[in-house]
Design brief:
By secondary structure, this protein is of the alpha+beta class. It has one helix at residues 33-49; strands spanning 3-5, 27-29. A two-stranded antiparallel ribbon has the order 1-2. The chain is elongated.
Length: 75
């Protein structure tokens, strides 16, 4: 799971030009494993539930071999 790493307290921080102390940054670590698991489960779910269809094509009537074909120009 995610966690917050806090800086140890009690130490002296560096002083800035105005005499104020800098705050230490808090480190945050997020575990990405659950999100990757969910992404792969969704991917597998959609791959399995997708319906695959054969592509629909028009039927083309081809002339018999050796038959004379007449080509007309469209006007």
């Amino acid at each position: 799971m995610s966690g917050v790493q806090e800086a140890p307290t009690g130490g002296k921080g560096k002083k800035t030009a105005l005499g104020l102390r800098k705050r230490k940054r808090v480190g945050i670590r997020v575990d990405m494993t659950p999100m990757v698991d969910v992404a792969f489960l969704l991917l597998i779910f959609f791959m399995v539930t997708t319906v695959f269809r054969r592509p629909l094509a028009m039927e083309v009537n081809m002339p018999e071999p050796g038959a004379k074909v007449e080509v007309r120009r469209a006007t």
